[in-house]
Write a structure and sequence with these properties.
Length: about 400
Amino acid sequence: MQTISADYIYVGNGEVLKNYAIQFDEKGIIKAVLSPKEYTEKNIQPVHYPGALCPGFVNTHCHLELSHLKGKIRKNLGINGFIDALIPLQQYAPSEQEIAQAIIDMAKQGIVAVGDISNTKHTFRIKEKLTQLHIHTFIESFGLNPEKAQEKFFEALTLFHELKSEYKSLTPHAPYSISKPLLKELLEYACEERHILSYHLMESESERMLFEKKQGKMYERLLEWFGTMDFFEPDTQNPIDEWIAHFPFDPAFPKSMMHILFVHNTFLNETELKKLLEHFGKSYFVFCPNANLYIENHLPDVDVFLKNKVKICLGTDSLASNDQLSILAEMQTLQTHFPHLDLYTLISWATLNGAEALYIEDTYGSIATGKSPGILWLKNTTTQLNEATTVNRII
Ligand SMILES: [Zn+2]
């Protein structure tokens, strides 16, 4: 049994404990959280860490299968330029070593759990073999041509069954890449099976223009790609309305119960956010600020999300759109652009919210007796992050 203390312990649920101590066993399971009075009375002398301790980070959005693309795509191309640059690069598969290295690096950076997107099986063997991280795999499907919906759905379902893990879901990619029949098929299956969904949403302004006016950069790119956009006939004029319109109605499992991670939200406005909240009570909004700056050089309007009291989580996206896979780096970027954010808020986004989103809060996400969330030491910080803040793993 070991006992450690710190100037500040960030619990993960928004609470901050001053000079408290944590007792944990050799498996990393927390046995007690002790106040200064309690450990003094018990004559325990904790090992003290100056700065702050917090639970291990949960990275709710990553694409490990793009781990070989670091530095291969130029910054600030916008989402359409980014996708154009990404598609030819996807003919090269990552090596197992590159995927393993990304997992090891994330673990070193204090990440204990990941929500990882897979469009292929490139990462499956490594994910089954390495145990450093808890990995929830989102098998993601896309295809805008309605005639190919059945084929695409079965492709994704085959991949889903191929992965030997109980932590997996089938999920649609994004409003601009999914035909109506494919979206319907995926959502019906996912709702029936109670899957967690992960949906790339409002990563660019051109996504809204596509639905609103059938114009703009996204529309032009797709038109060039397919040669025609005659088959693109959304029922609504907005990506969020379209999602709501196609969500299956199941009286036994209302949509307010579904766990949905809406990822990016870079250009999501307050009206759209409110609509989502009205229909999907268990929504989680994932910010990937460094990837947003890399691709669009724009960040979500964080204050609107705060005002509406939504559950925010953090993600790194992939090495194709980020220089590193570090949740601390994502928090530092947010702290720089939104200096009024409290550290306890940022840490709750990086830990407990992510654990809840991935249904792993019984083990991960907060410092509480019985959990084994991993414990991180944040150096050079007390109540705000700065560029000098570093993370070290205690367990
Ligand atoms: Zn992504």
